[in-house]
Amino acid sequence: MSEQPRVPHILVVDDHREIRDAVTRYLEKNGLRATSAKDAAEMDSRLKVGQFDLVVLDVMMPGEDGLSAARRLSASGGPPILMLSALGEETDRIVGLEVGADDYLVKPFSPRELLARVKAILRRAERPHLLAGQLGGRKLSFAGWLLDTDTRTLIREADESEVALTTAEFKLLTAFLERPRFVLSRDQLLDITSGRAADVFDRTIDNQVSRLRRKLEVDPAHPQIIATIRSGGYSLAADVREVT
Q1: Count of beta carbons in the 10 Å neighbourhood of residue 92
Q2: Which residues, 6+ apart, have CB-to-CB distance to 110 below 8 Å?
Q3: Which of the residues 78, 118, 173, 204 has the least number of beta carbons within 10 Å of its own beta carbon?
Q4: pLDDT tens string for the chain (244 positions)?
Q5: C-alpha span between 244 and 242 (Å, rounded)
Q6: Which residues pair with residue 233 across a beta bridge?
């Protein structure tokens, strides 16, 4: 007797009961498993006892907010995250991607759009090598750093100390490492790392580059590794070699 395929399990975290119940029902109606939680504390409890493939996480919640919870999940290597953000909270949406969310969706949203975003994230998660592009499964040395794309470990070669990367930082760094000394526009970087076009006044990439520089650069105010190209974007100003 053949084994039944595993059904992806989604954790829906929202303090509004009507929203989380409606989302849970819709996901289940469309062939997915879904469990709900009313806040970050209940989310943590669910994650301890269940295996989840994706967390749908609201930004505005009582207690610990969604941005803080997303940062924790990403730093600890938790499941992918789809953030839900109220209309007009542009800063929250940008910060959500910075702290490690894989995508965001603005409230009010179409259930069909939610399902499409969920399925897109699940497809990427099934193929983790895609997170590092063509660099999956390789160890790369650059500018005094070593990145293991399998374990997503960044190591300072001078003292072998490890530096934690969020999912967003890892995707941005691998985008640069795959294209050393190549000028990448903000739109190109956003498309490579998130698969979406920039909104008007979108500062997502600028903020992510700033965060990455604080981890890589000796003096982030005068970067030597990730250079700013006037009217162009950014470029990795270092050679990259594979370590065997």
Answers
A1: 18
A2: none
A3: 78
A4: 344 567 889 999 999 999 999 999 999 999 999 999 999 999 999 988 788 889 999 988 999 999 899 989 887 778 889 999 875 556 666 676 777 788 888 888 999 999 999 998 888 776 544 455 556 678 999 999 999 988 888 999 999 999 988 878 888 999 899 889 999 988 888 877 766 655 655 677 888 899 999 999 999 999 999 999 988 899 999 999 998 7
A5: 7
A6: 229
What is the pTM assigned to this prediction?
Answer: 0.59
56 with 23: CB under 8 angstroms?
Answer: yes
Helix, strand, coil percentages for the chain (3-state, nearest 5)? 40, 20, 40
Tokens describing residue 213: 């520089």
Tokens of 237: 């100003």
- Whether residue 180 is preceded by a cis peptide bond, meaning omega within 30 degrees of 0, is no
